[in-house]
Description:
The protein has 465 residues and is of the alpha+beta class. The chain is built from 13 helices and twelve strands.
Amino acid sequence: MKKKGLLYKLIFALLTPTMMALFFAWIIYDQFESSMESISGSYVQNLVDSVAARLDSKKWSIVKAGAKKVPVARDINTMASLLSEMNLPGIFVVVQDDGDLVYGTPGQVNLLMEHAADFNALAPVKIRVSGGNYLTGMTYRIPSERLYIVAAVQWQKLFGPMVLLVSVWPFVMGLMAVFMILAIYLLYEKVILPLRDFDDEVSSLRLGYELPAEEAPEAVPELQQLRSTFVVLAQSAIDKEQLSRDYVTDIIKAQEEERERISREIHDGPLQDVTALVQRLRLLELEVDGNQQIMASLDNAEKVAMIGVKELREFCNNLTPPWLDLGLAHSLQELCNRMSVQLGVKIDLEIVDDLEYEENILPLPLCLAFYRVAQESINNSVHHGNSTLISVLLERRNNAILMRIEDNGSGFTMPEDVKELRIHGHRGLSNMKERIRLAGGTLIIDSKPGFGTITSCEVPSQSVE
């Protein structure tokens, strides 16, 4: 979760400055447009006031036309002449109530009359006209003269090129937002998402056993190179692991071959010699029949020799158990029975899920691995932990074969790395781990001083198959 959080924080860190820049740019744009609107509004009001001041009624002769008061023709001409002298950027028209035009800015009358309805207000109104230009206008009535003034100012003439900024800036910000979204999308699609997938793949990868995908077409070339580099490292780890496995396999193979050789030498040498000695003692008893003292001595010598024969045979059986061919369950039964008698401890063996009827699917190397782990664990429990009770459990659980060995011994402090024990000459625990690892499983030893020891080894079913 933390790693994913960092990736999203990266997106946030890249997105925030851009969003803030757009936000402040919009504020500046809004303030700039408001200022221009305020200035243009003030200008139009001043323009209307100037026009109204020139149309002061005291200067004109007014005649009645029926019920209406209208300027006489002479006064209209004078108004037009007077207003034409106003050389201002704004445009305006003076219209009688009946719609007759008194005066209009040359060339701009049609434009202003076209939008007169939009400016039918006593306060300045901003409208947008064709070409992206803006007009701010208003209407001013002179009831005593039955005239009204419609005035407006074109932003382009009042502010010049700055109007273009007001017109274009929203599109610029929109374009920036689109590019920002596109950049964030590409960053997420080409960098963040491939990097997150690569992180998940590496996190779940069994280094030394598996390789990640060599290519990620959706990623940027830098991530492709990173993946390629990691593939090389992963392949090196696999090669190293294979060398280690081959090394350990050769050691275990050499150990088992040496055990078999020693067992064979003992069986064909000392065991046969002692057996022959027993036969000679028995023949000698026949020759001295009648001499009770000599016969008793020979009988005692024969018993000692038979004990030697039994111990040699047990030694040979421990070196190369002949019952491994009968399966794991039967082998563990024989082992527990024999070691219980030899070591003088109680060993309880429990086999669940009818595993004793399924051991034929287990290959001989796997049976041997479990057998050696159990043998080493029981020996350690008695010789190092002074255990008096040992429990051995063998079962199938969650598509795996599990063996658990628990004792009531004194326990010990388990080092973080069992290889440290190998360095100090204690090879038993390390050998146990290596045997199960070679079988594709895991071995866990849980022990504390005064609380005994629990040894658990588990091999997945796919490794068995």
